[in-house]
Amino acid sequence: MAVVAFKKIEKSFGKVKVIHGISFDIADGEFVVLVGPSGCGKSTLLRMLAGLEEIDSGDISIDGRVINELDSKDRDIAMVFQSYALYPHMTVRDNMGFSLKLRRADAALTSQRVANAARILNLDTLLDRYPRELSGGQRQRVAMGRAIVRDPKVFLFDEPLSNLDAKLRVAMRAEIKALHQRLKTTTVYVTHDQIEAMTLADRIVVMNDGIIEQIGTPLELFDQPCSLFVAQFIGSPAMNVFTGELHRADGQNWVQAGDNRWPVAATAAGSEGQSVNYGIRPGDIVIAPPGSGIPARVIVVEPTGAETELLLEVGASQFTVVLHGRTQAKPDDLVGLQIDAAKTHLFEQGSGKRLV
Amino acid sequence: MSKRWTWGKVSLEARLLLIGIPVFLWTMIPIYHLFLFAISSKDSATSGRLWPKQPTLQNFSIVLEQKHFYLNHFWQQLGNSLLIALAVGAITLFVSTTAAFAISRLKVQGGRSVMNLALFTYFIPAAFLAVPMYKTMANYGLLNSRWSLVLAMVTIASPYCIWVLKQASDKLPWELDEAARMDGATPLQLFRLVYIPLMVPSLVAVGVYALLLAWNEYLYGFLLLSKTSDLTLAVALGNFLAADDSPWELLMATGLIYALPPAAIYYAFKRYMVGGLTSGAVKS
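ok -> structure tokens follow
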């Protein structure tokens, strides 16, 4: 249990600067996910917290104590690696107990802690196996067990689910979440998968090109992305975005794109005639009969059972719409799109900043 | 899979045999000769027959009981060979493992340059280095000590061993070191508890290589050792040829005995040898 603080962190590899002054705090017991495209610096930030990379400038502190110069082993943190990094020549039991063995902990204490972690993770029957005899999901659990046994102040996860197949990934995601709810240890989790971020996090830190784009709860990021980058990164399928011109007249706001007028929330900022990026999430569009709303043509219908995904064409651009239910629409059908102005997003052209 | 012989298979088999048979003969004929001499009596040894009229184990008993002028110190010399080979194997293993660990895992600054410098010594034939080596050993007062040969052989074996082990350690996942560091391992604990256990196959290969190199060494043994009781068996065998009428049958019998330990070691560890020595041969 601990508070973690990043203060003006910078990092370069040779001449390439990868982290440009990052500051944020993590509360005690919080589950924070660092998410962003590859090369955004999220793993580097995690590795600096772990003590595996030097910190060029700025401070990282745990519980108010600056840890920049401390060795990994003295930081009281445990990490789960993407490749699991289990010791191939040790049994599951020895893998999990290794850190305590290095600390010359009492044998009884070690075996008790290992047994405890094994029970939490359902590894009881596998303790005498070697990593090569385990499946991917079991190895992942051993890696987590190795972290739990330490009873550290902070858990670090570096893309722990990337090596698992899709089905197992969903199952392990739930296990990680359940584990955190049970242990309530402060956790920092790195992933490039926004769904993992959304489902796991108390708060998400969206990173891009070595800076923080936005910090917030999953739903804050989803509902009020502060930049075009966040808007397009968070949410699946991705937000529909196109460019248009903002107009205000007679108490109405709209974005003109081709022949169509797209409604805009009354609260939106921006000046008359300004070029903007207009965004609307696939789930926020309602399909209506042709003649009402904005005319569109169906290109592809993808039923997934509970939902139906439609690919539509409006003018020259393509749109994704997700319907919660089923539809009679077929390819080449003409439909109308109804848009709730309150659920639209406007971003400044160029800077990509949200207009509110 | 059909078991029918097609022309393609037959011709492939034929071509393999065409290469295989000469290679087999090339390798086996000298060994057969060695064996033939060893089981022939003194008079019939050079008769040129493919199998002696009266095969005998007499030669071996002469060798083992040290009943010949050249063989007065046979057991002592066999012991020397064994001792020196084991020492070279052990010391080379220690030197090259620690060096490879420092270069590959701890990334000690300048480590790669040191390794390349060491490898550079292979550009100079070992025979050219023999005289400087002799001088050096003289400077340290090590001439006539078995240590001189041990140290010389460690010097010759180490660069290659370091290189092989370095390539092999580069292949260990880096995350293992990081995981161990986070688990609280010091570099020495990492070396002892994680690195060494994972390197066992390569260590066996390298250790056996150094051991056999020392076991088979003639030139340096000949130069650095002079007391008869200090000689290795390889040098002692060479001394058989000093006389006009060399006892060939005894030379060959001793040679056969001398060849047995390497054969046994190679057979015991061949599983590691092929994998260990070729791993790292290709930079992947």
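The two ends of chain B are 34 Å apart (CA to CA).
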